[in-house]
Write a structure and sequence with these properties.
With 184 residues, the chain is an alpha+beta fold. It is built from four helices and nine strands, in the order βαβββββββαααβ. The strands form three sheets. It has a five-stranded antiparallel sheet with strand order 2-3-4-7-8, sandwiched between helices. Strands 1-9 form a two-stranded parallel sheet. The mean pLDDT is 96.
């Protein structure tokens, strides 16, 4: 099933998410549906709040980038109940966009290294360190679980420059190439 993607302004994007366990209803189907929804929108990551679910889970697939950088080959992961337990000291800036904020792209400064603990789709625990672009994508999706979006990390002046687009999203006046769900 392809879900509509929740757009900026919908309350679920600002909620704190809840942990889940192996008994979460239709978990495997939900994971498959999240990947299908992400692929349909041509994304590389998708968090559960972006399809209206306030649970601690996101999916990432960087395979599409493997042609340019082989380190991304086979990097397809499910993160359930993740916790970033350590951030590196070095910061890097890079442009980010988001399926829930279509049409906006801004430079965001984030730590270039993280350590994250999570469960995979088989509910097996992992404690891993990621750097550079992998760390960035994970942090971007993790933010959704904390009720944040990437524009929360940009300067007030850049946020002001995007105010018109953000207001249009909140008012439901937005067009997108994939199915979306707005507040209005």
């Amino acid at each position: 099933m392809i879900y509509p993607i929740v757009v900026y302004g919908c309350p679920v994007l600002r909620e704190q998410t809840q942990n889940i366990d192996a008994n979460y209803p239709n978990l495997n189907q939900l994971i498959d549906d999240m990947f299908a929804t992400m692929y349909n929108a041509e994304g590389i990551g998708l968090a559960a709040p972006q399809i209206g679910l306030s649970i601690r889970m996101f999916v990432i697939d960087l395979e599409v980038l493997a042609e340019d950088d082989p380190q991304f080959k086979g990097f397809k992961k499910v993160f359930i109940n993740p916790q970033i337990v350590e951030y590196g000291d070095q910061m890097e800036s890079c442009d980010e966009g988001c399926l829930s904020l279509p049409g906006i792209s801004e430079s965001v400064k984030r730590p270039s290294k993280i350590r994250i603990q999570y469960l995979d789709e088989k509910m097996e625990p992992h404690d891993e360190v990621y750097e550079n672009y992998k760390a960035r994508v994970i942090q971007h999706e993790y933010d959704h679980l904390e009720g944040k979006v990437f524009v929360d990390h940009i300067s007030p002046i850049r946020r002001q420059m995007n105010r018109g687009k953000l207001t249009s999203m909140v008012n439901g006046k937005i067009r997108c190439r994939y199915r979306i769900k707005t507040v209005k």
